[in-house]
Specification:
With 176 residues, this protein is mainly beta. It is 6% helix and 49% strand.
Protein backbone atom coordinates (compact mmCIF):
# COMPACT_ATOMS: atom_id res chain seq x y z
CA UNK A 1 0.00 0.00 0.00
CA UNK A 2 1.38 3.42 -0.93
CA UNK A 3 -0.85 5.42 1.37
CA UNK A 4 -3.27 4.72 4.18
CA UNK A 5 -5.73 6.95 5.94
CA UNK A 6 -8.50 7.09 8.47
CA UNK A 7 -11.28 9.66 8.54
CA UNK A 8 -14.13 10.33 10.94
CA UNK A 9 -16.60 13.16 10.81
CA UNK A 10 -19.60 14.53 8.94
CA UNK A 11 -20.67 13.72 5.39
CA UNK A 12 -23.24 16.13 3.96
CA UNK A 13 -23.44 14.22 0.67
CA UNK A 14 -23.26 14.93 -3.03
CA UNK A 15 -25.02 18.13 -4.06
CA UNK A 16 -26.00 19.03 -0.49
CA UNK A 17 -26.42 22.64 -1.57
CA UNK A 18 -24.96 23.71 1.79
CA UNK A 19 -22.29 26.37 1.80
CA UNK A 20 -19.91 26.33 4.74
CA UNK A 21 -21.65 29.46 6.06
CA UNK A 22 -24.89 27.43 6.32
CA UNK A 23 -23.36 24.87 8.71
CA UNK A 24 -22.81 26.91 11.84
CA UNK A 25 -19.35 27.08 13.39
CA UNK A 26 -17.36 23.87 12.78
CA UNK A 27 -14.69 22.58 15.17
CA UNK A 28 -12.76 19.31 15.44
CA UNK A 29 -10.86 17.89 18.41
CA UNK A 30 -7.93 15.49 18.05
CA UNK A 31 -5.33 13.81 20.23
CA UNK A 32 -2.33 11.92 18.90
CA UNK A 33 -1.29 9.21 21.38
CA UNK A 34 1.79 8.05 19.40
CA UNK A 35 3.49 11.40 18.68
CA UNK A 36 6.68 9.69 17.53
CA UNK A 37 4.76 7.60 14.96
CA UNK A 38 6.59 4.45 16.17
CA UNK A 39 3.90 2.16 14.78
CA UNK A 40 4.71 3.12 11.17
CA UNK A 41 6.95 1.17 8.81
CA UNK A 42 8.48 2.49 5.56
CA UNK A 43 6.53 5.74 5.89
CA UNK A 44 8.09 8.92 4.51
CA UNK A 45 5.22 11.25 5.41
CA UNK A 46 2.28 11.38 7.78
CA UNK A 47 -0.03 14.06 9.02
CA UNK A 48 -3.11 14.59 11.15
CA UNK A 49 -5.71 17.30 10.85
CA UNK A 50 -9.04 17.90 9.14
CA UNK A 51 -10.00 17.06 5.57
CA UNK A 52 -12.96 17.48 3.27
CA UNK A 53 -14.47 18.27 -0.10
CA UNK A 54 -16.76 20.88 -1.54
CA UNK A 55 -18.43 20.88 -4.95
CA UNK A 56 -19.32 23.55 -7.49
CA UNK A 57 -16.37 23.91 -8.00
CA UNK A 58 -14.71 20.69 -6.85
CA UNK A 59 -12.20 21.46 -4.07
CA UNK A 60 -10.36 19.04 -1.77
CA UNK A 61 -9.14 20.76 1.40
CA UNK A 62 -6.78 19.96 4.26
CA UNK A 63 -5.96 21.53 7.62
CA UNK A 64 -2.70 19.93 8.84
CA UNK A 65 -1.86 20.31 12.54
CA UNK A 66 0.86 17.69 13.02
CA UNK A 67 3.18 15.65 10.82
CA UNK A 68 6.16 13.34 10.86
CA UNK A 69 8.98 13.26 10.05
CA UNK A 70 8.77 16.68 8.38
CA UNK A 71 6.20 19.23 7.23
CA UNK A 72 4.53 18.23 3.96
CA UNK A 73 6.80 19.69 1.28
CA UNK A 74 5.12 18.49 -1.92
CA UNK A 75 1.99 20.63 -1.69
CA UNK A 76 1.54 23.40 -4.20
CA UNK A 77 3.97 21.77 -6.63
CA UNK A 78 1.86 19.34 -8.67
CA UNK A 79 1.24 21.52 -11.72
CA UNK A 80 4.09 23.37 -13.41
CA UNK A 81 1.82 25.77 -15.32
CA UNK A 82 -0.39 27.03 -12.51
CA UNK A 83 -0.05 30.70 -11.60
CA UNK A 84 -2.33 30.40 -8.58
CA UNK A 85 -0.57 27.31 -7.14
CA UNK A 86 1.96 27.34 -4.32
CA UNK A 87 2.09 29.39 -1.14
CA UNK A 88 -0.76 31.91 -1.10
CA UNK A 89 -0.11 33.51 2.28
CA UNK A 90 -0.51 32.90 5.99
CA UNK A 91 -3.45 32.99 8.37
CA UNK A 92 -3.63 32.90 12.17
CA UNK A 93 -6.07 30.42 13.69
CA UNK A 94 -6.24 29.06 17.24
CA UNK A 95 -3.27 31.30 18.15
CA UNK A 96 -0.99 29.67 15.56
CA UNK A 97 0.30 30.62 12.13
CA UNK A 98 -0.66 28.43 9.18
CA UNK A 99 0.80 28.62 5.69
CA UNK A 100 -1.88 28.34 3.01
CA UNK A 101 -1.12 26.52 -0.25
CA UNK A 102 -3.08 25.86 -3.44
CA UNK A 103 -2.54 23.00 -5.84
CA UNK A 104 -4.25 21.70 -8.98
CA UNK A 105 -4.28 17.98 -9.66
CA UNK A 106 -5.98 15.43 -11.87
CA UNK A 107 -6.71 12.05 -10.27
CA UNK A 108 -9.39 10.13 -8.41
CA UNK A 109 -11.90 12.24 -6.50
CA UNK A 110 -15.43 12.06 -5.10
CA UNK A 111 -16.61 12.64 -8.68
CA UNK A 112 -14.68 9.72 -10.21
CA UNK A 113 -11.34 8.69 -11.67
CA UNK A 114 -8.97 11.11 -13.40
CA UNK A 115 -10.85 14.23 -12.33
CA UNK A 116 -9.26 17.72 -12.38
CA UNK A 117 -9.72 19.62 -9.11
CA UNK A 118 -8.18 22.23 -6.83
CA UNK A 119 -6.68 21.55 -3.39
CA UNK A 120 -6.36 23.98 -0.47
CA UNK A 121 -3.95 23.28 2.41
CA UNK A 122 -3.50 25.06 5.74
CA UNK A 123 -0.29 23.73 7.31
CA UNK A 124 0.54 24.75 10.90
CA UNK A 125 4.05 26.18 11.22
CA UNK A 126 4.67 24.40 14.55
CA UNK A 127 3.06 21.01 15.06
CA UNK A 128 1.03 19.94 18.07
CA UNK A 129 -0.18 16.55 19.24
CA UNK A 130 -3.67 17.54 20.42
CA UNK A 131 -6.12 20.37 20.38
CA UNK A 132 -9.24 21.87 18.88
CA UNK A 133 -9.17 22.93 15.24
CA UNK A 134 -11.46 25.83 14.33
CA UNK A 135 -12.46 24.67 10.85
CA UNK A 136 -14.66 27.66 10.08
CA UNK A 137 -11.81 30.06 10.94
CA UNK A 138 -9.70 28.33 8.28
CA UNK A 139 -12.49 28.67 5.70
CA UNK A 140 -12.79 32.38 6.58
CA UNK A 141 -8.99 32.76 6.43
CA UNK A 142 -8.88 31.16 2.99
CA UNK A 143 -11.63 33.49 1.83
CA UNK A 144 -9.56 36.47 3.02
CA UNK A 145 -6.79 35.23 0.69
CA UNK A 146 -9.22 35.00 -2.24
CA UNK A 147 -9.76 31.23 -1.95
CA UNK A 148 -13.45 30.34 -2.03
CA UNK A 149 -14.80 26.88 -1.25
CA UNK A 150 -17.40 25.32 -3.52
CA UNK A 151 -21.10 26.12 -3.15
CA UNK A 152 -21.97 22.64 -1.84
CA UNK A 153 -20.14 21.08 1.11
CA UNK A 154 -19.59 17.33 0.79
CA UNK A 155 -17.75 16.44 4.02
CA UNK A 156 -15.60 17.60 6.93
CA UNK A 157 -13.62 14.90 8.78
CA UNK A 158 -10.70 14.47 11.16
CA UNK A 159 -7.94 12.83 9.12
CA UNK A 160 -4.92 10.68 9.81
CA UNK A 161 -2.85 9.86 6.71
CA UNK A 162 0.53 8.24 6.13
CA UNK A 163 2.41 6.88 3.15
CA UNK A 164 5.44 7.14 0.92
CA UNK A 165 6.63 9.78 -1.48
CA UNK A 166 7.76 8.80 -4.00
CA UNK A 167 5.50 5.77 -3.84
CA UNK A 168 7.01 2.28 -3.80
CA UNK A 169 4.18 0.27 -2.35
CA UNK A 170 5.22 -0.95 1.09
CA UNK A 171 4.11 1.58 3.70
CA UNK A 172 2.30 0.17 6.72
CA UNK A 173 1.12 1.20 10.15
CA UNK A 174 -1.68 1.14 12.69
CA UNK A 175 -4.00 3.87 13.89
CA UNK A 176 -6.70 3.78 16.53
Amino acid sequence: MNDYLCREGIRYGMNSGLKYTDLGHLYADFKLTDPSFKSYSNVTYSYIGVYGWSLDPLIEWYIVDTWSPYRPNWIGKSTANCDECGLRGTITVDGATYEVYVDKVQRGSIEGDNTPFTQYFSVRKSKRSCGTIDITAHFDGWKSLGLELGNSMYEAKVLGEAGQYPENGNASGTLS
